[in-house]
Write a structure and sequence with these properties.
The structure is a single chain. The chain is of the alpha/beta class and 256 residues long. The chain has a single domain, classed as Alpha-Beta Complex (Spore Coat Polysaccharide Biosynthesis Protein SpsA, Chain A), CATH 3.90.550. It has 9 helices and 16 strands. Strands 1, 4, 7, 8, 10, 11, 12, 13, 14 and 15 form a 10-stranded mixed beta sheet that branches. A two-stranded antiparallel ribbon has the order 2-3. A two-stranded antiparallel sheet has the order 5-6. The longest helix has 12 residues. The relative contact order is 0.18.
């Protein structure tokens, strides 16, 4: 199953760093948060990724282009114009980096990678948050429920999109950017069937609005309630918090 990561936004709430690099490339513990997310999925055996790039996409492409050499020991023989690679290190990853446009909305970015997905279910998450969720259990839950979309629902506070969830974990409504405290919110880590593309019109579509709202009304959106660790990196304060967890060897998402 392929993993789609949304990594094209401007990161306007953490401009101290994002004015120079795209938000998913901001480092925690010396590695981009995008790398940490990929490592999470890889830990559970999911190694094929499609990254929806946009703002400063060249930074992401250059990072993975140089990844092999950056993680190996190298000897340069200048006189012979030769390079020898020692102690090579590689990951079992296949990563497709797609230019989904500079100003494309989240739904539009997903629509643009349809050709790389094919007619099969896939996973989707945001390129600015980490979690210690068991991804295999999430996929099993999605398959059991038989809905078009499954969202990991968490309870961090009230600044994200609120979900109304019934006793069967069906999501009856999706309200983006609600302000209620203590409600269940969209934590990313989604599993989607290919029918999801029919709910996205074009580049102007915000995935968290019309598509998810319509799925909820149609009874095709289900929640996977999760009360474990989840943290997005919206602000410099969030970045410092994640950095500290790694420095103290107390990062719940780090299982490698």
């Amino acid at each position: 199953m392929k993993v789609v990561i949304l990594a094209g936004g401007f990161g306007t709430r953490i401009t101290e760093e994002s004015q120079h690099i795209p938000k998913p490339m901001i480092e925690i513990g010396g590695k981009p948060i995008l790398w940490h997310i990929i490592k999470e999925y890889s830990h559970f055996g999911f190694n094929e990724f499609i990254v929806c790039c946009g703002y400063k996409q060249h930074v992401i492409k250059e990072y993975f282009s140089d990844y092999y050499l950056d993680n190996s020991d190298i000897t340069f023989d200048m006189g012979k114009n030769e390079m020898t690679v020692h102690k090579t290190f590689s990951e079992p990853w296949k990563i497709t980096l797609v230019d989904t446009g500079l100003n494309t909305m989240t739904g539009g970015r997903i629509k643009r990678i349809k050709e790389y997905i094919g007619d099969e279910p896939f996973m989707l998450t945001y390129g600015d948050g980490v979690c210690d969720i068991d991804i295999k259990k999430l996929v099993e839950y999605h398959n059991k429920k038989g809905k078009i979309a499954t969202i990991t629902a968490i309870q961090p506070g009230g600044k994200f999109g609120a979900l109304a969830i019934d006793d069967k974990n069906n999501i009856s409504s999706f309200i983006e950017k609600a302000r209620e405290d203590g409600g269940w919110i969209n934590g990313g880590y989604m599993v989607l069937n290919p029918e999801i593309f029919d709910y996205i019109k074009d580049d102007t579509t915000v995935f968290e609005k019309e598509p998810l709202e319509t799925l909820a009304k149609n009874g095709e959106l289900v929640a996977y309630k999760y009360d474990g660790f989840w943290q997005c990196m919206d602000t410099l304060k969030d970045k410092m918090y994640l950095d500290n967890l790694l420095a103290q060897n107390n990062a719940p998402w780090k299982r490698w």
